[in-house]
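Exercise 3.2. Students should predict the tertiary structure of the chain below and write it as structure tokens, then compare their answer with the key that follows.

Predict this chain's 3D structure.
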Amino acid sequence: MDHKKSLAEREVTFRARPRALLVAVAAAFAPALAIPTAARAATTRATLTVGSGETVEVTATTKLSSLTIEEGGVLAAPDGYNLSLTVNSVETGSELALLTDGYGGAATAIAAGTYRGDVVITVAESNKLAFSTLTFPFRQAIYVDSDGVDKAKSVLANVRGGCATDSAATGIRLASNGEAFNGVYVTGGGSYALTNPKIAFVGNGRNDFIGYGASVQGTGEGTTLVVNGATISNQGVVRTAVVADATANVIVKNSTLHCADGTVPDEYPASGTGDTKYMITVPWMLGLSGNVRTTNLLGANTRASYINSRVSSENWGALSVDGGSNCTLTVINSEIANTGGVGYGSYAIGNVTEHILGSRYDVGDYVLITWSGTVHYGDSTKAAVAELNTGLELGLTSRELAALPVQSNDLTSGRFGFMWYGASAVTIDGGTRVRTGKTTFLSKASAATVSVDGSDGATIEAGNGVIFQLMDTDRPSSVAVSGKPWSSETIGSYTEPTGSPAKSSTWVTTSAQTADSAATFTDISLKGDFYNSVRGGGNANLQGQNLVLTFDASTVEGVISASATKHSVSTITVAEYREIGEVTNTAQAVVNNGVIVTLKNGATWTVAGTSYLSALTIGSGASVTAPAGRTVTLTVDGTATAITPGTTYTGSLTLTVA
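Answer key:
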């Protein structure tokens, strides 16, 4: 469907309905704009018609009972200003220019059509925000800076009900069915409390790396935005609910946020782009689909916290971190979900720190995707929450702290648990329960660090029986393009290598290396397999990579081995995007994919099938056994060797169960 044409061809009619805009709010926000007089200004007319081929410049905020814009007619604002149309307080009619128009789809116009009801054309100062080579002319219902609400930059006709001041807004309602309109925008070191808002935006946003089209945004050093009791429901491409950016501190509590996919513009490349000026769909190379993420955390040292809230996306992602550095994401006693069955719970990049305490995840594909960062999943104990409250300036009162129950995480994913594309650390403790439809820990040739402490009841359940998979990356690359607004398109493919890997002359498989993936499991009972299928030998410029496993006072039953992996298809393109990460293993001898296992403090490994290692340390009191009624044998470099506690074995190790 050509969405732009349909807006132009249909009559847009709004029936009058009761409004609850408080007199106090209307008086406080009465526009007072000093705008130059133009040749034709429509300031007092009850109706306005803009004919085909005609341009009407509106120089002051105007109230009408009817507005008609014929096809080819233009409603224009003076330089430095934007127009926003509301009908019965609903922002409407705004449509983005084409992504290929030379402005990157940044500009919006009021679409042709007939609008009836309480019609207001608001003339507001443009809030121009640069992102890379593009400038996005933000329009927002409420603009707040360090001095409070800036009426000249606000579209106050969009505000229904409630009460608003320079420091807080309570009970307001915002609605939009236009494109790229923002709700509450707080910046410049200001502090604002947004309590019990109801926001419903339908229609596309434009860029969620800067928040163009978001419902709520806090940005700028010293800015604090507290959102309490919000209900935000959006539908549209990158029509984000909450954005935290540029060192702001954004706290969301007792709220419900949901974003559903929209219709991608026809001019957008079918396979998508990784060029962040234009990227409006999730990169399919993650094995995902979707075109809106519910939240985004951006900038340097920015903080975003979600407390006692429900955050859900239809697809793509619920809690995103992107395009920033050293940010902090906190989730306490909240519910995180993908309602469409595709997507992730949270994302980690740019050395982010994530605290996930006492929360419930029900996600389609990944609990976490991480490129770099430190992520902790633990209980929302009183001490842990109090520490975060102080350190992150969450502003929770003693009454709020007392009311938060102590909970354990319950993390459920339809496919994978935690996926690494870069060096990152994941810690799981307390009573955290992890249940995945397929592999739990999935490292794509990355230095993954995992620590799982089961002493307080943490558990791991892998639906396909694979707890840890270290493998080569199967992520296709973006391809540079020219002659288009975007610099790249994700039209690459992954082709599975064939033949046996070449043995590296430099890679050491018998001792841990800094680039290895490493996992420690303490005081926990595990049932499942652990595989390392990295080919090395120069494949993908990687000489080798080891899987280093430590079992401390734990029991594990399964295969632990070097392996070869195979996808169900030999080539993965955008059409096969769901095959990303989906592999089967065949245990085989170590080449460049060392498997180093340490059992200590009474740990027991029950070997469930033939396993190939490069090093095995069996601490005093630890043991290697076979399932009941079977026996396990060990060969080292082809020589049968006794399995003796207190011994370390290195070389080509094979454990066989008979």
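Discussion points: Residues 1-43 have pLDDT under 50 and may be disordered. The helical segments are 3-9, 23-28, 382-391, 398-403.
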